[in-house]
Amino acid sequence: ASLRMSQDGLRLQVQNGMDLFWPKNEVRWDQLGTITQVWLRPTEAHFELDSFELLQQAEQLGLLRQNWYPHQHLRKWTLGIACVSALIIGSVYVLLPVFSFSLARHIDRSTERKIFAPLTRPLLSDSKTCKNSEAAAAMDKIVTALLPTLPSDIQPKVLIVDWKMVNAFALPSDYIVFTSQLIQESKSWETVAGVMAHELQHVEKRHNLGGMIRSSIASLF
Asked: What mean pLDDT do residues 137-152 have?
């Protein structure tokens, strides 16, 4: 079979003498590496040619103006938009923690308490507070011992909630929450004191506030 091109379209001559012709508006060209795919409408039959010269010849004859270039430009635009979107999203999620924790460090603690204390209290209001006076007294003693190591503007407020899980976490407005299960499963009060020191570091470094700012901004994307 032989393939010939003209400004009108594509002509294919096969061995049995049959002469097939497709107008240029019924031919679509795709270039995949070194393979040229030629799609023939309306049946979408296609064949492949291992030659880039054919594509160059079709370009010189003007066969690609309506078929190849719009398709190629669309592909380039799609790829470009995808790359730019990935770059923006990647930059946001890489720079977001840096921005969030930097912003948190510049917020005055009194301002933080005014903003977040009304939000933090309802969050814990549905929790059953542990009424163990021995545990509460021990926690107050631990906080009193650790308080001199903290900046003077930190006013830790420790809550023990009756949750059946081993956990402790810090919240904005200097709240530190311990679960009763963690205290019960701790081997000693020294272990609890170590957890308290860890959570107070989160409070001092503003990790809790920075995490909340980061989550709020990330929810917008």
From this structure: 92
